Input
Amino acid sequence: MPTDKAQLTATKSADTRHDIHELIRKRWSPRAFSEDPIPQEELEALLEAASWAASSYNEQPWEYFYAHRSNKKGFQLLLSCLKPGNQEWAAQAAVLLVSVARTSFSKNDRPNRHYMHDAGAANTTMMLEAASRDIYGHMMAGFDYEKTEDEFELNMEQEPVCFIALGYLGDPEQLKEPLRSREQTSRNRKPLSEFTTQIL
Ligand SMILES: Cc1cc2nc3c(=O)[nH]c(=O)nc-3n(C[C@H](O)[C@H](O)[C@H](O)COP(=O)(O)O)c2cc1C
Output
């Protein structure tokens, strides 16, 4: 890995108080992707990793539609569903996916209250597997919901969750400001005291 990529990875690595797993530190959401394609076999490994997330009643309510950048028609279809601000950088991704969730249980058609939770767990599991292979993902809520439902012919029980841009790390210089600067600044999180309460 060239030094500048190594530096970027170090800057983006989570600065944590506790000694948490390296993969969790390493994952982050880039906007600058390299030209390198993701081999289909690698992508399938990421999708399989996603499928090993836990889900309510093991429903596995997730579904993915995806295209490699080399597939111009499919990639353009996915890209066209994004909000312009996301299109600007996601056009450089190696693969675009849309994460879709089934909102009811397949065995009895009752509402699945946890479909969004479970699809999110699958997406995050995918992101961690990706990071282990030096592939990075950027999830996006900035997309046109109605267009996505139309283009992918989603039925009443399928809900688009988010889009995901995947690729190998690129050069932040390929981005315009303010994204270029953001790409190179460290990440931060709320302290535990702000989101946890120990019941005594
Ligand atoms: C569900 C979801 C939706 C997001 N939507 C967008 C988006 O539309 N555009 C964008 O640039 N980033 C988006 N993000 C990325 C977040 O801004 C990013 O994960 C957050 O700032 C934390 O940064 P990190 O992932 O590098 O730790 C989204 C992330 C998630 C999980």
